[in-house]
Amino acid sequence: MKSIILDERQFGTHEECGIFGIISEEKQELARDVYYGLFALQHRGQESAGIAVSYDEDKVAYYKNMGLVNAVFHEEELRLLPSTNVAIGHVRYSTMGSSNVVNAQPIVFYGRFGRMAVAHNGNIINAPNIKKRMIYKGHIFQSSTDSEVLAAAINDYSTESVEQGIYDACKNFVGAFALLVLSGNKLYAVRDRNGLKPLIMGQKDGNIVFASESCALDAIDAEVIRDVMPGEIITVNTDGSYTSRYFAPPDKRPCIFEYVYLARSDSVLDGTSVYESRYNCGKILAEMCNIDADIVAGVPDSALVSARGYSDVSGIPYVDALSKNRYIGRTFIQPSQSMRENSVKIKLTAFRNNIQGKRLILLDDSIVRGTTSKKIISLLRKNGATEVHMVVASPIVKWPCYFGVDMDTKEQLIGGYRDAEEICKLIGADSLHYLPLEKLAECCGCGNFCTGCFDANYAVDLGNFHSEKLLFE
């Protein structure tokens, strides 16, 4: 096969999304449960939201729009979605250039087996190649997302059944994907063979529920059954029965950045508590770093737990140094750099009385682009902190992510070509300390993770690097 050189920005839309689905024996207002589930997953995507429900066995009603979950869905929109046996939902963020409602999910289409809906979290890195082949065969695409390519491929392979289509299509996808597929009165849940993206299965009053994180199951009082396994397809019927099959041998390599930043602290991923992971990171950092300071604080929200762990081991008092505006989304997953920088200005304020005249140790989960860290340190100094020592609960982010986290190129990353000393000078800290990768993995359960953003040890063989490009055969 002819080799194709792909620039990193040709991989399509990089996303870190949240998906939620539920199937019931009796028709219910399941859209409301999906709404609460999506609300709990809002941290995974704040650009668009959508819900799709099946009705009359072969029809799908849906509503999706730009904005936060509670801005997209009001009582009127929820009432328009009929009572159903099956419903799925999606929250999304994207990179610049693909921020429009056409790219919002779930993707709803009419296929070989009638109306279907697909919700996808992840990034299919060979989607451009698949899309070219399908366009040559006569397929038409409306959006710029790899998720539409994924949905079209499933339909193309569905010659015998939807399940068979999912099975055959998934064998051809390279990259990360957690999927929920709604077709008729069935719900399909799928996870890529490396388990890069989380997907958990639960139950509530006989209903089967799937979610990106366990916190979304908690939001509707559902009980955890188990995680969807890497490479697994689970087919669920309305009576609650389900079957499992594998489209590929599992090679579990979940994304370690889920534990660092992406997941909510109260979630459990693949049996490991995110809270405990972050707390232990703080404890280890306290053992490693000998910093003479007066107080310890964390950057809200994902670093607060690590800061408490650091304080407990070091004996240095924990204080709140920064106050977060709860109505502002996560800065890291804003669709453009200018939006990220502007968000910082109104997102965080400092507790002057807590930090004035104090030497401060500030815990953060990671430093990706560095602009946020620089602004935070400047803010703390303006409010009276005499020293700001930055302690990071992960290693230096050196490499791009190709599997759904918005880190496109090494040039975008402050650590792409710099060491800790150089980064320290750029962000204006008095000192800068990182957690070694082996210690991070230890805190996250000692599993075999995808750590590509830290050391280029990706879960998927990406071919050869050539001047920020990848070669695919």
Summarize the structure.
This protein has 473 residues and is of the alpha+beta class. The chain has 16 helices and 23 strands.
What is this structure's SSE topology?
Blueprint (H helix, E strand, L loop, with lengths): L3 E4 L10 E11 L1 H11 L7 E8 L3 E8 L2 H4 L2 H6 L3 E9 L14 E5 L2 E11 L2 H10 L9 H12 L4 H9 L4 E9 L2 E6 L8 E5 L2 E5 L2 H6 L3 E5 L4 E6 L4 E5 L10 H6 L5 E2 L2 E2 H15 L6 E4 L5 H11 L7 E3 L12 H11 E3 L1 H4 L3 E6 L6 H12 L4 E6 L27 H8 L3 E4 L2 H7 L8 H4 L13 E4 L1
Parallel strand pairs: 17-20, 20-21, 21-22
Antiparallel strand pairs: 1-23, 2-5, 2-11, 3-4, 3-5, 6-7, 7-8, 8-9, 9-13, 10-11, 10-12, 13-14, 15-16, 18-19
Helix pairs in contact: 4-5, 5-6, 9-10, 11-13
β-strand number: 23
CATH topology annotation of the largest domain: Glutamine Phosphoribosylpyrophosphate, subunit 1, domain 1
> What are the low-pLDDT stretches, counting only 5+ consecutive residues below 50?
1-14, 464-473
The helix fraction, in percent, is 25-40%
Biggest sheet, open or closed, and with what strands and sense? 7 strands, antiparallel
Structural class: alpha+beta
Indicate the mean pLDDT: 90
Number of helices: 16
CATH classification, class level of the largest domain? Alpha Beta
**What is the number of independent domains?**
2
Looking at the structure, what is the overall shape? Answer: globular
The CATH superfamily of the largest domain is known as Aminohydrolase, N-terminal nucleophile (Ntn) domain
Please state roughly what percent of the residues sit in beta strands, choosing from under 5%, 5-15%, 15-25%, 25-35%, 35-45% or over 45%: 25-35%
Euclidean distance between termini CA atoms: 6 Å
CATH architecture annotation name of the largest domain: 4-Layer Sandwich
Strand order of the largest sheet: 4-3-5-2-11-10-12
Radius of gyration, in Å, reads 22 Å
